[in-house]
Write a structure and sequence with these properties.
heterodimer; A: Ubiquitin-like (UB roll); DNA polymerase, domain 1; 2 domains; five-stranded mixed β-sheet; globular; B: 793 residues; Aldehyde Oxidoreductase, domain 4; Aldehyde Oxidoreductase, domain 3; 3 domains; 26% helix
Chain lengths: 169, 793
């Protein structure tokens, strides 16, 4: 631990991590280059593109705008947490079915944002989904597949939770 | 492959029910990407890796008077610093893959020599133990710049008063000009009933892939081996360019592109930083990584589009087109990038219309801005905007309905193949059908019949059409040779059996989001008659793929379809022969179905592919006249380019007070020939349309006139469409198989970028026809509409 390093303790995808990081390292670089979780991507380091979206204490966060030390004491989830063994989870499967990805660079970010939406157990209209995901850019798909996949998945999670399966219009 | 296909039997197409072409198979690429297990270049992390940062010229045009590296070099962790003189001694200038015919080569070195010609040009490179330390050291460099007079405007750059950017090679900023002509347009124009002339300006934009550029270079001096992980569309061309720039043999270089996070033309060929990372790695004997940050990306990665088109269109009173001329100037920026500024405006400048006499002149102008490179469409969106807006203007002038004017002049199916004034051959298609379909889908007739009054919200409704023909692929290697292009028109694949009973498909086409792993597997499964699931694609590694061309110009599938068919048929024939020998029947009596070869008359008598493949690979148990191994490589060049086509229609609502407008519906009717995977086709068209909306409606890299500085050079200043921006899109397809490609495919990757600008502009001008509004400039924004309404410049 060098002079400028600070200790950080967090739970990442269910695993306890105790380490130290340079004070100026942002959370996305920490996840990628210190912890080897390269599924989280970096696109602008300005909080504009949303590529680095992760869940911190269940909230979607642009991790390039956060210092690694700010993760201290948090529970973090990244895209690597989604699949169970060799099985894609239902959200990932919906993305695949609806061709919601092309180059795949933005995909982890949309998956994590959609994961947080699905934990509300509420279906959303396509327009509402478009507003919700507007903090993340995709340059390949034109968003249609992403909106369809999330819409279908939210309806399903709402149904499973016993809520209204109807998609509001 | 020495084997030739002799048996017609082997060419039996997949049986009904086994057809794989035309199915929306799940993508091969998806699982790793969905699990966060893609491997983009910044995911490559090596022991003892160093990182590079670049000092860039902050001025649009400046002389580098002196560079003092002493403070930067003393930073702990800094390993090496290179300046212009170092690269001059050790490297060749970056080569141009697609030169402008007749243009002199400009000596574009990886670091600026005495003079930098654009803001962002690399001047010094620093390698250190981390990117942060390298950036700290860049801050400590003392570079003394003498700012020089700059020129930003494309046309001003060609005036005699403009500073000449490359006086050692050129006497002006005109790099070159090329003219294509048929007939006698000048005489036709002189005698025409109606002649319209207009200047159209197309904005400078950027492809903005979500993954920036990047490279990791590894040098093993003892092995004389340079391994390069790069984010590129063209691994084999990067290998060629690096070998030339670094003065080493291609055999010493391996380029591997694993997953590429979007490219769109921007990742075509090498950039200065690629040469620098390799130079440092070779000197330091340690891996060197460089990942472009987004601020660099806006200045150092090629821009696209910027051009001025001077069009002249002549017609008879009844609407028949007589002649078109188009003199256009593309902005090249400060140097000639690998692909330079767009060239295809010259090919499709007459669009889908019957124009007997026409001339096009392309002029290429150097300016003190970031070099322009290929961007999705490569000149076709630009010229479509100008032509289609002018067609509507002609309709207004002649008082003919724009739909009717298009009907009258549009090439009919029986007139194809049609040779354009610039010599390209439109292969086939039903252009008018797409026009009618678009008009119907947007309720054109009802709109025309309705009274032209504002809606309750005060807005006026307008409908705009834009038809297009798009070149996909290249005419031939011969065509490319005439233009000095440094690549071919072919694509190449290798199929190789493995002992698990699967097929490995090797291609130099890297995965940039275009889904070629999926489409190639579908074609392979179709030709072979094997299960889609047993094919695994290994993409983008020059050490493990036949030497191909690459993924650009909507050409990959067009050429690869032929290569896959040829390799597939050879592979299938040998598999059948080996299987028949095991079953002790004649080859004519067996077929291949999924994962086994079986007797046609007795399907229960079968032998699994795994057994056949193992026998072939070991050579054990095969007939004496068979050679061991089961592998086929094919290179295929299609006989000509395939031309996609279609018509778009936009319905907009415009507020005549403020100029604000919204797109209430956008219809895209498109023909890409036989669709290998309809879901992927839809994704390509939608994605490109949204890029087209961005470029038409707001994206613009603006430069300050006085200072020459980029004003919109970050993601906080340059806005690409977000999900909530996308208007409702209706996609319609026709499917006319192209006669010039295997399986009748046409390219599909770029088409969506073409018609949005013209369709939306025409719709706005239609809505505001009572106000005499004309728009000749992109992007179209509420402000520009308001200015047009107010007659403000």
């Amino acid at each position: 631990m060098s002079a400028n390093d600070l200790p950080v303790t967090l739970v990442l995808n269910g695993e306890q991590i105790d380490t130290s990081v340079p004070a100026r390292m942002h959370a996305a670089d920490f996840l990628r280059h210190r912890l080897g979780r390269t599924g989280t991507h970096v696109g602008c380091e300005q909080g504009a593109c949303g590529m680095c979206t992760i869940l911190v204490d269940d909230r979607p966060i642009k991790s390039c705008l956060m210092l690694a030390v700010q993760l201290d004491g948090t529970v973090v989830r990244t895209v690597e947490s989604l699949a169970a063994g060799d099985q894609l989870n239902a959200l990932q499967a919906a993305f695949r079915r609806h061709h919601a990805l092309q180059c795949g660079f933005c995909t982890p970010a949309f998956l994590m944002l959609a994961t947080s939406l699905s934990e509300r157990k509420q279906a959303l209209s396509s327009e509402a989904i478009r507003e919700e995901i507007s903090g993340i850019l995709c340059r390949c798909t034109g968003y249609e597949g992403i909106v369809r996949a999330i819409s279908e998945h939210l309806s399903q999670t709402a149904r499973d939770a016993g809520g209204s399966p109807e998609t509001p219009t | 492959m020495s084997e030739t296909v002799k048996s017609d039997h082997a060419m039996t197409p997949a049986e009904e029910g086994r057809r794989v072409i035309g199915r929306s198979c799940p993508r091969k690429e998806d699982e790793r990407l969905l699990r966060g297990d893609g491997r983009f270049v910044d995911d490559v992390q090596l022991a003892h890796q160093l990182e590079m940062a670049i000092a860039r010229c902050p001025f649009p045009h400046a002389r580098v008077r002196s560079i003092d590296i002493s403070r930067a070099a003393s930073v702990i962790g800094v390993k090496q610093i290179l300046i212009g003189a170092d690269v001059l001694g050790q490297t060749e200038p970056l080569s141009v893959l697609r030169p402008v015919p007749g243009a002199p080569a400009l000596p574009y070195y990886a670091l600026a020599q005495d003079i930098a010609t654009y803001e962002g040009q690399p001047v010094v490179s620093v390698v250190a133990t981390s990117r942060a330390i390298a950036e700290d050291a860049v801050e400590l460099l003392e570079i003394d710049y003498e700012p020089l007079t700059h020129v930003s405007d494309t046309l001003e750059a060609l005036s005699p008063q403009a500073p000449v950017l490359h006086p050692e090679r050129l006497s002006s900023n005109l790099l070159a000009s090329n003219t294509d002509r048929r007939g006698d347009p000048d005489t036709r124009i002189a005698s025409a009933d109606v002649v319209l002339r207009e200047r159209f300006r197309i904005n400078r934009v950027t492809a903005l892939p979500m993954e920036t550029r990047g490279i990791v270079a590894i040098w093993r001096p003892g092995a004389h081996e340079l391994t390069v992980h790069a984010s590129t569309q063209v691994p084999h061309l990067v290998r060629k360019q690096l070998a030339e720039a670094l003065r080493i043999d291609e055999s010493c270089i391996r380029v591997s592109a694993s997953d590429v996070g979007g490219a769109f033309g921007l990742k075509l060929g090498i950039y200065p930083e690629d040469v620098l990372a390799c130079l440092h790695a070779m000197a330091l004997r340690r891996p060197v990584k460089w990942i472009e940050d987004r601020m660099e990306h806006f200045r150092a990665s090629t821009h696209g589009r910027e051009a001025t088109h001077d069009f002249c269109i002549a017609a008879q009173r009844d609407g028949r087109l007589l002649a078109i001329t188009n003199t256009y100037t593309t902005d090249l920026g400060g140097w000639n990038s690998s692909f330079g500024s767009a060239q295809l405006s010259s090919v499709v400048f007459t669009g889908p219309y019957r124009v007997p006499d026409a001339q096009v002149e392309r002029r290429v102008a150097l300016t003190n801005k970031t070099p322009i490179g290929a961007y999705r469409g490569y000149g076709q969106p630009e010229v479509n905007f100008a032509l289609e807006v002018l067609v509507d203007r002609l309709a207004r002038k002649l008082k003919i309905d724009p739909l009717e004017l298009r009907r009258l002049n549009m090439l009919r199916p029986e007139e194809l193949p049609w040779t354009t004034p610039s010599g390209a051959v439109y292969d086939s298609g039903d252009y008018p059908k797409t026009l009618e379909m678009a008009a119907e889908a947007v309720s054109y007739a009802a709109h025309r019949a309705a009274p032209k009054v504002p809606r309750a919200d005060g807005r006026l409704i307008g409908i705009g059409l834009a038809s297009f023909v798009e070149r996909t692929g290249y005419a031939s290697a011969r065509f490319l040779a005439k233009r000095g292009s440094q690549f071919g028109a072919h694509e190449s694949v290798t199929l190789r059996a493995n002992r698990s009973g699967g097929i490995d498909l090797y291609t130099g086409v890297s995965s940039i989001g275009q889904s070629s792993e999926t489409a190639f597997s579908q074609l392979c499964a179709e030709v072979l008659g094997v299960d889609y699931d047993i094919i695994r694609v290994h993409a983008g590694d020059t050490a493990a793929s036949p030497l191909n061309t690459g993924s650009f110009a909507s050409r990959t599938l067009i050429a690869a379809a032929g290569a896959l068919r040829e390799a597939g048929l050879a592979f299938r024939l040998k598999t059948l022969r080996l299987g028949a020998a095991i079953l002790q029947v004649a080859v004519e009596d067996v077929t291949l179905d999924g994962t086994a070869v079986h007797r046609i008359t007795a399907p229960q008598s079968s032998v699994p592919l795994a057994q056949i493949f193992r026998q072939a690979i070991t050579g054990q148990g095969i007939a004496a006249d068979e050679t061991p191994g089961l592998e086929a490589t094919a290179h295929f060049e299609p006989p000509d380019a395939a031309f996609s086509f279609g018509t778009a229609a936009a319905r907009v609502a415009v507020d005549p007070e403020t100029g604000d407008f919204s797109i209430e519906k956008f219809v895209m009717v498109h023909d890409c020939g036989v669709a290998v995977n309809p879901l992927i086709v839809e994704g390509q068209v939608r994605g490109a349309l949204v890029q087209g909306f961005g470029a038409a409606l707001g994206e613009e890299l603006r430069y300050d006139r006085e200072t020459g500085q980029l004003l919109s050079g970050s993601m906080l200043d340059y806005f690409v469409p977000i999900a909530a921006d996308v208007p409702p899109i209706e996609l319609l397809h026709t499917e006319v198989p192209s006669p010039v490609t295997t399986f009748g495919v046409r390219g599909v990757g770029e088409v969506g970028t073409i018609p949005p600008g013209a369709a939306i502009t025409n719709a706005i001008c239609d809505a505001l026809s009572g106000y005499g509004v004309e728009i000749s400039q992109l992007p179209v924004t509420p402000e520009s509409v308001w200015r047009a309404l107010s007659k403000e410049p």
